[in-house]
Design goal:
By secondary structure, the chain is α/β, with parallel strands linked by helices. 43% of the residues lie in helices and 8% in strands. It has seven helices and four strands, in the order βααααααβββα. The two termini are 26 Å apart.
Length: 223
């Protein structure tokens, strides 16, 4: 989160495994949902179980906004969720089952509320995604890591001012980079943008994409 001085408005660039998983699911299945509609066909298993663009979008927005709520709680000084621990050592079978359910409640498949068959397949896909050799971590992107974010620190300060001006009616702005083969930005009301991994952008296109996105969220037109 990048606040200036005592300003409570903030702008964050945070990698989220949960948000990235939703887009990874599209690539795996081949389902196309604007603007994530520039990728080849996949195994079609989710579509065969009746996931469609509308149901994916509802789920995606729920996942994004749950992450935003968590980020906002921390931004205003809220506490982290309490750590889950076993009461017994070794844990009982019942405790292990309860722990499994508690951990699942924090995953994207748990936020799917439609077809139970799709939910079961999402559970399996989440296991596959989570066990990939290079695990994606929830962390903020920074321009001082070589090549991770386009632009310089000074350019980001200037961009912050422009974003704040356009999005002053928003509580803050949360941006989530995801792995996708084309440059896209998806607004998720009330205050999130999901966009292609930052390494793929030039500074000018990245700046313009963020400004256009925040203007859309704020219901304004860029000058």
């Amino acid at each position: 989160m990048h606040p200036i001085g005592g300003d409570r408005w903030g702008w964050s660039l945070t990698g989220s495994r949960s948000v990235d998983f939703c887009v990874w699911v599209l690539l795996h299945d081949g389902l196309r949902v604007r603007p994530f509609d520039i990728h080849p066909n996949g195994d079609e298993r989710l579509r065969q179980l009746d996931m469609d663009a509308a149901s994916w979008a509802r789920w995606f927005e729920t996942v994004v906004n749950r992450d935003v709520e968590d980020q906002e709680r921390l931004r205003v000084g809220g506490d982290f969720e309490p750590m889950l621990v076993y009461e017994s050592d070794p844990p009982t079978i019942a405790e292990q089952l309860q722990m499994k359910e508690a951990l699942r409640a924090n995953t994207p498949p748990a936020l799917w509320t439609e077809s139970a068959q799709v939910g079961e397949l999402l559970d399996g896909l989440w296991d596959d995604y989570s066990s990939r050799p290079v695990l994606r971590r929830n962390r903020r992107a920074r321009w001082d890591r070589d090549g991770e974010v386009p632009g310089t620190a000074q350019q980001h300060m200037e961009l912050y001012s422009s974003l704040h001006e356009l999005g002053s009616d928003l509580p803050s702005l949360h941006c989530y980079p995801v792995a996708y083969p084309a440059l896209v930005v998806r607004e998720v009301a009330p205050m999130a943008l999901v966009l292609t991994s930052l390494r793929q952008w030039t500074w000018e296109r990245y700046r313009d994409a963020l400004l256009t996105g925040v203007a859309s969220l704020a219901g304004e037109t860029r000058p």
